[in-house]
Structure formats: C-alpha cells, structure tokens
Amino acid sequence: MAISYPLSMPNAPGFQKQNLSAVNVVGIAVSPFTKQQQTYEWPAEYWHLDIALPPMSRTLAEAWVTFLVSLRGYVGTFHAGDGAVKAPQGVATGTPVVNGAQSAAGVTLNTKGWTHSVTGILKAGDYIQLGTGTQQRVYKVLTDANSDSSGNATLDIFPRLREGVSDGQPITLTNCQGTFRLAFETPGSGSASGAGNARTWSVDEAMVYGITFQAQEAL
Hints:
Shape: globular
Low-confidence stretches: none
Radius of gyration: 20 Å
Structural class: mainly beta
Strand content: 35-45%
Mean pLDDT: 94
CATH topology of the largest domain: Phosphorylase Kinase, domain 1
Order of helices and strands: EEEHEEEEEEEEEE
C-alpha cells in the first residue's frame, strides 16, 4: 500500500520537550552614524518545531523511526501542533466559521457563529485551525477577542493567512494542528541546512532509543 501524506505522528510516548518558534522574515538597516533603524517586513511567517522524545524501548521507538523514515526527507508532510495545548482558554462557545471570503496574507481573521456578546470568546494564546489535509493550518490568537451582539469576532492571528478562505469555512478549536515537513533551515536564518534529509536515532548499551527532530511549516 502506497504511503500518502500528510502523515499523523505516533500517539505514544508524548514529547519529552517541544520548542516552538514563531519565525518572521524582517530586514533591518542601521545607520552606522546615528544608529537609527529602518525595518522591512516581508510576508513570510511560519512555525518551527524542535521535538525531543523521551528514552524508550524499541517497541515504542520503531513507530517513530518508521514515521520519520516514511517522510523520505523533505518530500513527506505530517500534522503537528503545540502538544501542550488541547483546548482554548477562552469561552469558545458557538459554532464558529469564517465571516466572508478573505485573501491570503491577512493578519486578522473575521469570524462569525459564536455565542452572542461574550467577553473573552477566545483568549490571547489560543489556537485555531483552518482547513484539512495538505492545507491544514494552525494559527495563534494574539489578543483577547470578544463576540458582538451578532456573534461576530475579529481575531488577530499569527502567522498570516496561508491561503484565501471562504465564507462559512469551519474553524477548529481543539487539538489544532498544521501541516509540517522536516526542517530544511535554521529558524530565522534563511540558510539551508539539509539536516532534515537525514533522520537519525540513537541506541545505547541498554537498548534504549533516543530520537530528536526538527520541523517547519510546509508552505
């Protein structure tokens, strides 16, 4: 049976540690005489993950080893998110959907379908998910959001909208995940490392496996 992407990560064991980076591409020019700065913001924004798994036996490790090998370097994609966050901190009631068609690269998302007139319908730090499959995207809400008397709310989000969204598109609030591939550059540097094409695992004298890997958003 042919492997199809995106894959799902194995369920066990959970991460020993997960580092998340929110990466922007911003240039800065600094005067050597006055130290005044001028910045230029490019539209590229993305998530970077650095994942360490706990020591484990071969029985558990092989699920992760075969998952990583099955990605075939940068070719394959998989779904991942913030492993510490399963549900929003906000009230998050109603049946939220996108409010009106919106173009890619926006930094806000208009939504509707929330319970009417709720303060803190979502809280800063909550995640939302848009889309499924290869265009499954995860966004972080940057400010507290309230619903108005019609059940509408505007969300400040990171990263920018990946694709245009359509009116009525569903919004997922729990176990939010985006689409990732093995990392091909150091976060924020823009320099290719090539490390993701080599998947490495270690085994010590006690036959305990160690696995770490890095990933970045698949765009």
